[in-house]
Amino acid sequence: MTLEAFQLDGKNALVTGSHKGLGAAMAVALARAGANVACHGRDASPARACEEIRALGRKTFYFAGDVANAQVCVALIERTVAEFGSLEILINNAGTIRRASAEEYPAEFWDQVIAVNLTSVFRLSQLAGQQMLRQGKPGKIVNIASVLSFQGGILVPAYAAAKGGVAQLTKAFSNEWAAKGINVNAIAPGYMATDNTAALRSDAVRSRQILERIPAGRWGDPADIAGAAVFLSSAASDYVHGHVLVVDGGWLAR
């Protein structure tokens, strides 16, 4: 195998939650590998990632909307196909987190987190899979799971439940679509320096406790996820199906 297997020239991708953070890093990484990339976020202002993607000579556009809304999911897929002509890569990265103790966890927190972090992954994967099957050529779906797909965490019952569901959903879709030319896999990031972990990083005690357990000795950077995203979106991973690739600085190994 050569580096050509990691190239994405001629591929069209959609990365949800790519206004900033992990999503933006993955979107730009796909463009650097050769793909046209549609970006998405809830913010009305365009994503900076789109500027970087255009500078690389790739096609892009920005779509604002809440993936908790089923119609937004439909529109995202339809717009991507309309703009690019096809869809070969979907990265389900959009997510949210709400923290509260288990005994006081509000029902609205649960509903919101499950809708964004799990239900939208099902909807978008199903819609993308339908499109890929119609196209009759290989496709890649990459879901963003978490180390909390394997652990329960603290103060985040809905997030842990959703990410556990993402890991299982990845395997379920893979079982049906692997033989049809669609790879469905997931990436499980560890503790990354993003908005989702801002509260933890600002808490001196929790931050120290977390860092002491990470063998790499640091919080992950969005750029640390880029290689995994390109790999699972490229021909280099054609025989990888239903896998959850952990990128955590060694957290789970500790």
Helix content: 40-55%
* Spatial order of strands in the largest sheet: 3-2-1-4-5-6-7
- Based on the coordinates given, report the CATH architecture: 3-Layer(aba) Sandwich
- The structural class is alpha/beta
Mean pLDDT: 96
Q: Could you name the CATH homologous superfamily? A: NAD(P)-binding Rossmann-like Domain
Specify the CATH class: Alpha Beta
| CA distance, first residue to last residue | 32 Å
**CATH fold-level topology:** Rossmann fold
Task: Summarize this structure briefly.
This protein has 254 residues and is of the alpha/beta class. The chain has helices spanning 21-32, 48-55, 70-84, 107-135, 157-177, 198-202, 204-213, 226-233; strands at 12-15, 36-41, 60-64, 89-92, 139-144, 182-189, 244-247. It has one domain: NAD(P)-binding Rossmann-like Domain (Rossmann fold).
